[in-house]
Amino acid sequence: MKRFGTVNLTALALGLAFLYLPIAILIIYSFNDSRLVTVWAGASLRWYRELLRDEAMLDAASVSLRVAFLSATLATVLGTLAALALTQRFRGKLLFSGMIYAPLVMPEVITGLSLLLLFVAVEIERGFWTIVLAHTTLTLCFVAVVVHARLVTFDKSLQEAAMDLGCPPLRTFLTITLPLIWPAVASGWMLAFALSLDDLVIASFVTGPGATTLPLRIYSEVRLGVKPEINAVCTIMIAVVALGLIVASLLTKRSASRSLGARV
Amino acid sequence: MSARAIVTFENITKRFGDFVAVDGLTLDIFAREFFALLGPSGCGKTTLLRLLAGFEQPDAGRVVLDGEDLAGVPPYRRPVNMMFQSYALFPHMTVAGNVAFGLKQDSLPRDEIAARVDEMLGLVQLRPLAARKPDQLSGGQRQRVALARSLAKHPKVLLLDEPLAALDRKLREETRFELKELQRRLETTFVIVTHDQDEAMTVADRIAVMNRGKLAQVGAPAEVYEQPNSRWVAGFLGEVNLIEGRVTAVYPSFVIVEREGMRLRVAHAPIAPGPAAVALRPENVRVLTTVPEGSFENGAAGTVADIGYLGTMSIYKVRLDDGLVLKAAVMNEQREAVRAVHVNDRVWLSWTPQAGVLLAE
Amino acid sequence: MQNTQQRDLVTRIAILMPYLWLIALFLVPFLIVLKISFSQTTIAQPPYTPVFDLSEGWEGLKQFFAALSTENYATLVSDSLYLWSYLKSLQVAAISTVILLLTAYPVAYALARAPRRWQGVLVLSVVLPFWTSFLIRVYAWINILQHDGLLNQALIALRIVDAPVTWLATDTAVYIGIVYSYFPFMVLPLFAALEKMDNALLEAAADLGAPPWRAFFQITVPLSLPGIAAGTLLCFIPIVGEFVIPDLLGSSSTAMIGQTLWLEFFGNRDWPVASALAVVLLAILVPPILIYRQRETRQYSPSSFRGAPEARARNP
Questions:
Q1: Distance, in angstroms, between C300 CA and closest chain B CA?
Q2: Residue C229 is part of which domain span?
Q3: For every residue of chain A, which 3-state class applies, written as one string?
């Protein structure tokens, strides 16, 4: 039995406090009636109301959400295929896995720069779609890693059994593999969505007129100093993400308990 | 059982990197027989099974099924079905769904599928559980579903990969007989892979004993057990006493093998004199409490070193005067308190000329 | 899936699609960066020359290659600004990684020893901040570290200092921001490695006479080395190229390579130099990745596979 002493408890408490304090402060001050962070002038929804009137911000939010949705979906399809490819053996696999794992650690300035230079060289007009393409490329690698991790623990004898019973590979994937790994695929989608929503650096490189994402908008405002509306935007984003995560964990818990006895 | 070979492995070699799993193996499996692949871990028996199922491709040689060369035929197009060791039941489908799966791949009409599923479930006595999911079944029940699923398509050959390994002993023994019965009734060729000798000998019509990717011996259980063709096979199947000596005299129907202090008469066709071993099964060695004077054929004197009590029988380890230890298995016809032989007793071991098997290699 | 040599068409297409996508949108861009690092700036659209143009035929190609030069790399080497920028980045990354290691280890250890019931929730709560926007988290620190921000308010209230301290636009702020943002990237690999450790090992150490602290340093830490390596790599490499954090929390004197690259590209509109910077940065970062990958694959080579030869044969 593992003992969980006071030292461990303190470490955890301090760690979690460190992680959550800044966010908590941000949330609290989004309800601060005063413009200054230093002064607490009572609770109000003033900044949220200002936010709703800020057309530029709302526009940016819309762009971000659409980009995130499209790129996440495309990335999930490609990333799942890539994960499948990683379970196979083929010539050129070394290069392939290198390309999958590299973006995970590569500094974003490099990825952003290279993609912009590509778009310029091929003379694609920069804007909404270049951001989608860029985000898809980056996030598909994350999806691939997540889904691959699940495929590695997947009982291959199920696929063999299906093929033994006459099911060709594509149908085997759709009727056997996919239904059983869908939580991993879904978390891949959510990860891709969050990453796309959050991306600043790559978007700055590949964006064009009329395609300002939310992080770009926030960034340009923040450089001019702290603005209380930003607190409100951030709080909303945190709430949305937290909600999404709670829903996701509930869903996976349900399907996990169902397949617990099946020992897949 | 017929004499027609339904499966032929022709000079099959399969390598995994540097490891040679199957080494130039040639084997025929006849139609409608229950065939067992038996051997220790790593001997290549499972690889051979998977080569037949189509999950591996041979590096050399070919696999022929019912006259058709299976090279390049993927597993989902072979008329062969496999019952997996882990059962590999689809957890997101019901029992009926699992059994119907293979039939759906052939796009059979709906009512035909339903009828066949019902027939299969009846065969394994699982009709009441048709709507359950695998995680709601016991180990034994899951095994039956796996069996029903693999038989649903009436395959030409059914492959069973250590099907009883996960069951406890009692259930294993019961299921063995059921499998045998089923095979006889369906008249399908069964090929079973097992490392359990008792299992192989109980269910199989013929056994292929494998070692390190090669065939050691193929034959009916009695043949392989009572007439092993090598020291290794003799030692692998059950317990055996190996007595080394020299063939000193040859007669029309038997030979004399001698070693210091012992003279054995072994029933055997004439053979050139030279070093040889005699394999003697412990159950063929009698233990007598009276030690005769003088020297006799097919007998030796010794001291009981150890007695292993196994309930139905006892294994006596007897150290002969020259140091050799022989094992004798004797049925416990009387209760322990009444038996005549104890540790450190002097006893006489004796056997018939037909009991020993001469091994030249 | 099948190990068969022949693959059916569907599987082939399935592998090709992501492969081609990545070649087009990952590999080719890098080649372009390489090419442009050998080009020169012009006032034109695109702002570099020569432009790769196949329509000019062989002559055009020859002219193209003639116009390339290593001038940009010469600039990098000659101007000490760039050298300092690289060194600064490596320094910041190294120090941050060490701080991350020291602060994340206790937390990962605590997580690994937490009762199983709570582990899931606790790990989730450590990871949750990561799911909120990166930008938000950095921005949150601006709030706190401002001249009249909460940190100064707290310090003054606790009478640790008399006057507000300047936190923003300092190296310290950058370190705080980096450690804060990369925390989960260090905690998770460490946790994964520590969680796998068999508790019986520590009991054996105690049984053989080792006090807890010695057992920790001689058993636990060495066994968690793969996690340490993974976490270090996962943090160090991206931190070297960090842009947002030093830009928002640091000053121009903190100019890390990410900022320098950004400035060259957006500020000076000097794409070729920016590309050269990127190429050199990659050259610095790639060797550690390769070494790590090689070590990792060696760990899982077939020869280290325990188990029956049969099983080994099935998992080459």
A1: 15
A2: 73-313
A3: CCCCCHHHHHHHHHHHHHHHHHHHHHHHHHCECCCCCCCCCCECCHHHHHHHHCHHHHHHHHHHHHHHHHHHHHHHHHHHHHHHHHHCCCCCHHHHHHHHHHHHHCCHHHHHHHHHHHHHHCCCCCCHHHHHHHHHHHHHHHHHHHHHHHHHCCCHHHHHHHHHCCCCHHHHHHHHHHHHHHHHHHHHHHHHHHHHHHCCHHHHHHCCCCCCCHHHHHHHHHCCCCCHHHHHHHHHHHHHHHHHHHHHHHHHHHHHHHCCCCCC
